[in-house]
What does this fold into?
Amino acid sequence: MGLGINMGNALETPFEGVFAHAASAQHFEMFHDAGFGNCRIPVCWGNHMLLEEPWTIKPAFLRRVQELVDASLSHGLVTTITAHHEWWIDTEANTQQKQSDWMYQALPRFESMWKQIATHFRHHRQLLLFSILNEPCFLSVASLNELHRVALIAIRETNPTRVVMFSGLDFANPRWLLDNPKAILIPRDPQLMLEIHMTEPHGFAGASPSQEAWGTVADRERVTDWVSRIELFGRARNLPIYVGEFGCSNEQALDKGRKAWLEANWKEMRRKSFAASLWDDGDRFKIYDRKSGEWDHDVLSTLQRSLPGLQGMSVYRTGGGLGGDSSDPCIDLQRTLELAFSNLGRAVDDVEKLPELQAHDFKPGLGRLADNAESEGESDYDSD
It folds into this structure.
C-alpha cells in the first residue's frame, strides 16, 4: 500500500461539492502519477440510508461510491472505503435507555449498513479494503468491541477474504491503544489491519498557526517512540498498521516545522513498513487542488513524491500503484507481473480485432509430412 492520499470532504459531507471540489476520475490518475500507492475514500452512509428498517442505502449513492472506487482501482491504487461521520452509532450510552436504543436500534442499522456495502462490493478486487468505523470516540470499550464483532460478521458473509480495518477509541489515537493494550478484543481473523490516525501534537499539526517551531531532537524522538511502540503492539497481535489519516495543517509554515513534521513522521512509518494515507480535505490540509490540478510540490518533494519530469522526483520510483513504496524484494516481481498482465490485456484486445475465419475445407493428413512430400514432388493430394 505504501503512502497514499485521502479523498476528503467528498463523500462524507452532507452534499458533495460544497466543502471541496467534487471528485472525478482524473483526480485518481493524478494521485497515481504523483507517486501515491493507495487512496482512502471517506464515506458517510448514514446520510443516505433509511432511518427505519430495512435501512436501505440509496442505490444512486451506492453507484456514486462505486464510481470513485472503480476509478481508483483502475489506476492500481489500493483503495479503502470507510464509515465516516456516523455520529448516530458513535454515542455515549450513559443511561439504560440510551444503551437499549443503541443495542436494539442503532447497532442493527449499522450491521445492515455494512451488510449492504459488503454485498454490493463482493465481486470487487481484493485491492478494495473496508474500514469499519472512522475515529470512534464516545463509545464504551464494550460497545466498540461489540460493534466490531457485528460488523465483521456482516462483512464476512459475502467477503470472506477481504482486508478489514478497525480502530481504537480517542479518535483512533495510537496513544489510547498503548495506554489500554488489553481493551480491544482482536477477532481470530487473519485478514485484519489496525487503523490509527496521527496529527500529534495536535496543537501544532492540527490547529491554527503556532508560534513555536517543530523539529527539535526531542520532537523527533517522540515520533520514533510512538512508531516503535505501536509497531510492537501490532506485531504482537499479528496486525499490520495503517495510518489512515496523518498530516500537518497547511496553515503552518514549512520553515516553522511543517516540512520537518511530515518528513519525520513518514520516514519513521516507512522504516517500520506502515501503510499510510496523507489527509487531504481540499481545505486546511490541502496539498492537491482538485479544481486546478495543481500540487503543493514542496510537500510532494518532502515525501519523495512528484510528477515525472519535475524537480524533486523521487529516485526510488516513478508513479504510484500496487507496491509503490514496498521495500519487499518481491517488488520487482510485482511490477513485472503488472507489466505482463498489461501486455496480455493489449494482446487480447488485438486478437479480438482480428477478422473471423472464413469457411474452408479440411483435408485430413495434411501436416509436416505432407508438406515435405509435396516439396519433393511426391504428393498424392490434389492441388486444390
Residues 96-120 form the longest helix (25 residues). The CA atoms of residues 364 and 370 lie 10 Å apart. The first strand starts at residue 3 and ends at 6. Strands lie at 3-6, 38-41, 78-82, 128-131, 164-166, 192-198, 241-246, 275-278.
